[in-house]
Amino acid sequence: MLSLTCKNAIKAVIYLSSKSDKGEKASIKEISARINASEHTVGKILQLLARKKIINSLKGPSGGFYLSEDQQDQPIINMVEAVEGDGVFKECGLGLSKCSSTHPCPIHDEYRPARELMEKIFRERTVRGLCHAVTGGLAHLVG
Q1: Measured between alpha carbons, how far is 111 from 43 in angstroms, rounded to an integer?
Q2: Which of 42, 100, 107, 126 is the most exposed place for a label (fewest CB within 10 A)?
Q3: If you write DSSP's letter for every residue of 48-85 in order, what string do you get?
Q4: Whole-angstrom Cα distance, residue 70 to residue 74?
C-alpha cells in the first residue's frame, strides 16, 4: 500500500523525533545510516517534508533537520499524504482506476476494511508515540 519512499519518510521523521527529544539535529548522512536508506533518497524526502512544514531544517555548521514540539505531536498521516498524496487510502487494492462498490475489483470487499483500518491507524498514531516505542526498545526502525 505505501511506497518505499513513504516508509522511509516515516522512519526518518521518527528518528528525528528521537534526536529532537534531546534538543539535537541530524544530518542527511546520519539519518540515512540509521534508517538504512541512500543519502540521495533521504535528502529528497527531507527536502519535501521541510517544504511541507512536517520537519524543520537549519543550514550552517550547527544545522541539520529537527522537529518542534508541535511537529512531534502530528499524526503519521501527514507524512503519508506529503509523499503519496491524499488519495492513498482510497485506491483500489489491485490498482484499478475504476474500482468502486458498483464496479468492484475481485478483492474490493475484503480490501476496503483493511484500507480503512490502515487510514485510522495513521490518523491516530503520532510521531512522538511511535518514537517512544522505538526509544523504549519496543519497536525498531531497521530489520
Answers
A1: 33
A2: 100
A3: HHHHTTSSEEE-STT-EEE--HHHHTSBTHHHHHHHH-
A4: 7
Tell me, which fold does domain 4-135 have in CATH?
Arc Repressor Mutant, subunit A (1.10.10)
Q: Which residue is listed with cell 485506491? A: 91
DSSP bridge partners of 126? 75
Cell numbers describing residue 118: 490502515
Dmax (CA) of the chain: 58
Can you give the length of the chain in residues? Answer: 143
For the chain (length 143 residues), average pLDDT per consecutive 10?
A: 93 95 93 96 97 95 94 97 91 89 92 93 96 88 79
In this prediction the pTM is: 0.91
pLDDT at position 109: 92
Is residue 16 a contact partner of residue 55, using CB atoms and an 8 Å limit? Answer: yes
